[in-house]
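Board notes (copied after class):
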Amino acid sequence: MTDLDEAHCVRTAGDSWDIIESVGATAVMVAAARAVETESADPLIRDEFARVLVTAAGAGWTQLANPDLEWIGDDEPGRRAHRVAVDYQAVRTHFFDEYFTEAAQRGVRQAVILAAGLDSRAYRLDWPAGTTVYEIDQPKVLQYKSSVLESAGAAPRAARQPVAVDLRDDWPAALDAAGFDRTQPTAWLAEGLLPYLPSDAQDRLFEKISALSAPGSQFAVEVFSFDATNERRRAARRARWARMQRLGLDVNVESLTYREGDRADAARWLTEHGWQIHAVGNRDEMTRLGRPIPHDLLEESIVSTLVRARLTPTS
């Protein structure tokens, strides 16, 4: 495995993937963490669909979703580090679950999940009657999720509209064709997405969301902080990928992400374009929810900001 500053991005313009390939595999990793959390003794979130979505991807992924973490063996530091990673996924899931719940309480009746992956919120959240959830992602990813959940007898709790389109293409047109109403407020979500977009594509994404948003719309986004000079964090990443290789899973997230130095700060961009934001660091949110990162693991853990924004009416 390679370091953040040594890893060369393997992405190309117009690349696509299946659920266990490239960026698709990261969706399975995240779902596996939700499965582990759901089956823990005192789960912060419950995603009863995560395990079935993961196990359908293969034996190695099934082991990754086991809550006992037996696949890590007697590597106690590895077990602790993996538990922190699961805690992070649980906390961010909780943050964005609450975001959608509060948006619904404000009367928002359409949601758009960008790069939806194996997100199961359309199936597990208590959506008010009349809510439509649009899920945008690669065609093969959406097909996989729909097929697996249909076979499991799962039914969405809102009107679910898959929108099979790449976010680097004309996704607003595809969203419109799926029935999106530009005159109604929308709750947007970009969870775990931004690092997989080139910086210019991120800017275009924000511009299009703003153009499509009626007053009262809301936007939630996860913003990561990468520090290539942090030796402990780099070593922790190498160790994590090495552990996954034991399961026959070779996923190097760093090689799938874009790390241009000119990437716009999401919170600042939104503020400058008429959005009122509330931002919290992941470490503060993890502490608030009873999942603090152990002090000796702080330097090697994920650093991110969880942002909620609301579009204010223009005078």
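Comment from the instructor: Residues 76-105 form the longest helix (30 residues). The chain has eleven helices and seven strands.
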